[in-house]
Amino acid sequence: MGFLQVRQLRKRFERVTAVDGVDLDIEEGEFFTLLGPSGCGKTTTLRVVAGLEKPDSGEIYLGERCLLSHSQRVFVQPERREMGMVFQSYALWPHMTVFDNVAYPLRLRRVKAPVVRQKVMEALALVGLAGLEDRPAPALSGGQQQRVALARALVFSPRVLLLDEPLSNLDARLREEMRRELKALQRRIRVTVLFVTHDQIEGLSLSDRIGIMNGGKLEQVGCPEEVYYRPATPFARDFLGKTFALGGKVSRPANEGLEVRLDGMACSPLQVAATSLPSARGGAPAAGDEVMVAIRPEQIAIWNSTPAGIPNVVPATLEGVHFLGDRYEYTVSLGSVTRLLIAPASQVLKAGQRVFLELKSEGITLWPRSG
Prior knowledge:
CATH class of the largest domain: Alpha Beta
Structural class: alpha+beta
Number of helices: 8
CATH architecture of the largest domain: 3-Layer(aba) Sandwich
Order of helices and strands: EEEHEEEEHHHEHEHEEHHEEEEEEEEEE
CATH topology of the largest domain: Rossmann fold
Distance between the termini: 33 Å
């Protein structure tokens, strides 16, 4: 049982089901991210947890305390849920100073003035804004406004911090900086975080665990490495990062050592472990089954000549070379199909060159041809 528990959460807007039976168990001190495309239901889930939306059904518990239950007719108001929230737009009061913005939640709770000042100054120091308490909120940069919103969410020591795409309005360089600062801050104060984003890099770099959402449902929950390298569904596979996929047919079943012969390619069959099957699919494929062989491009090694004694090598031809600064992007043809590959800037190859691609066994996943 998690510290923050969400059970069978459902929310409809007219004919659209925004959240469809979501279950979550988030541990105390965990940084948990809901990751998915726009319209997948992640922000609606966050707003229901915050108490800003009333769901059609479901239950929410924070520790032993019930915050929401239709069967028990419980609905705790947002300000009584012990949760701080940072909105995508920051939602700062433009007519207030930095101090007054951060102090607002405390004054709402009728905290005495000397305590308000102490807690506000501590919160501003925590986010690196000491000395800016008298500045008008609109006079701050985007990064500083984001810090003010974070200080306001933390000033009353919430048990859970809710973050709704708080970095999306920052430029790329500042977003990277704030991403590091946010993770360092969370580790320092050990607050439980429920974070919502569509940005894959944010999700992978910040999270202890990730829940991938699609169509109001959770497709997969796991640590960043698990959801990236061992996706459970075709959506989870294709939403995170790039996928290098080739069609093939099983030539030997799993109980005899799984082999897959790639379509239209004059190369030895791929040797694939039974563990390469996605966890959401039961049963191993039989001989003759058509499958998709999927692997992340960074788990493919490029050789200038046939490597000796290495399995899963596929011949290819370089069709295009694109320099991206820290790496090269190569367009390769394999039989009648073309795919993209990534290689470090130190590995310089030329268009038209014949190469050999080593598909790392540990990086391969197998899928039904329809997936």
